[in-house]
Amino acid sequence: MKGGSAASGQDHSSEGQGAAAAGKDVPGQRAQGPGDQELTGEQLARVKAVVASLPAALVELLPYGTLPRRSRRQWLESMGARTTEQIIERAARRWVQHGYADALHSAEGTGIGSAVGVAMALVRAGECPHLRCEDGLDLDTGAECRICAERRADRRAAKKAAAAAGRDTGAVRQAPHRPGWWVCTICHAPDKGEAPDDGECTRCQDEAAAAMQQLADQWAREAADLEAEQQAAADLGADLDRQAEERAAAEAAERTAQEQADAEETKRLRAELAEQFPELAAVSGSDSSGPPPF
Fold it and tell me: How far are the Cα atoms of 66, 96, 180, 253 from residue 106, in angstroms, in the given order?
């Protein structure tokens, strides 16, 4: 029994030394604590499925080629409300987009310092409080996450306010374990190459330019709307003036026509009276300018 135990210990020691020689993280042996409770069969299957989907180069760097038992529950809890398939897609996307593949495989890369840490970074949920946000995009619609956009706008406004007040806005920092990569000061996403002076990635710069263009377009629309309203008001005033002139002309014409009609009616009555009562016409004499004599 003792011999068997010693052999077992020697085997583990040899395996640990081999793993260390291969550049793997080899955790020290310790007793199981409160955070190391056994996983259910379903949870364990989920861990194995996700680990198996990770890039082979990363899996080779994990202790004994798998995720340490003490890290599994935290690893699962960090994934958030996503299916196994969605977590696998997340890890594959981040492995490339966040520069881990470049750090490990490129000629300039210096490797990955903590394979377990990278495995955690590949699967854990982002900082956005929107449950359906997946690295800045709405998981259901594929559109840009509105909350992420608002948070970036707030950070940009705070950065500008700090710069205006003469306070330090923070220097661009390098992305950990990714030589040649840096982290955007606005969205905190990694990017490769020379960092710009303002520390903003291309996406944030494009977003800011689009926001400024949108604001300029809005101002142009508002100016055009105001001009249209002013023109409409002027046109309405001119139309009202024209209508008033037309009404005045119509009223004047109506008065003239009424006066002419009254004069014609008076003339007709005089003629009838003169025909019916010639004696009255004789009395009235030649004065035909006044009204009839009765």
Answer: 24, 12, 10, 95
Q: For the chain (length 294 residues), average pLDDT per consecutive 10? A: 34 36 41 58 93 93 90 91 94 90 69 86 90 90 89 80 66 64 71 68 70 70 84 87 89 89 85 78 58 52
State which H helix or E strand residue 138 sits in.
strand 137-138
The CA distance from 109 to 101, in Å, is 9
Q: How far apart are CA 182 and CA 98, in angstroms?
A: 10
Q: CA 154 to CA 147: how far, in whole Å?
A: 10
Instruction: Give the 3-state secondary structure of residue 144.
Output: strand
Per-residue buried b or exposed e for 178-188, using 16+ beta carbons within 10 Å of the residue's own CB: bebbbbbbbbe
Cβ pair 120, 79 in contact under 8 A? no
User: What does the domain layout of the chain look like in residue ranges?
Assistant: 48-125+170-200, 204-266
Q: Residue 173: what pLDDT? A: 67
**What element of type H or E holds 260?**
helix 202-276
CA distances in angstroms from 281 to 268, 276, 290, 292, 293, listed in the order given: 14, 9, 12, 9, 9
Q: In angstroms, rounded to a whole number, what is the distance separating the alpha carbons of residues 28 and 20? A: 12
**Exposed / middle / buried, residue 200 (Cβ in 10 Å: 0-12, 13-18, 19+):** buried
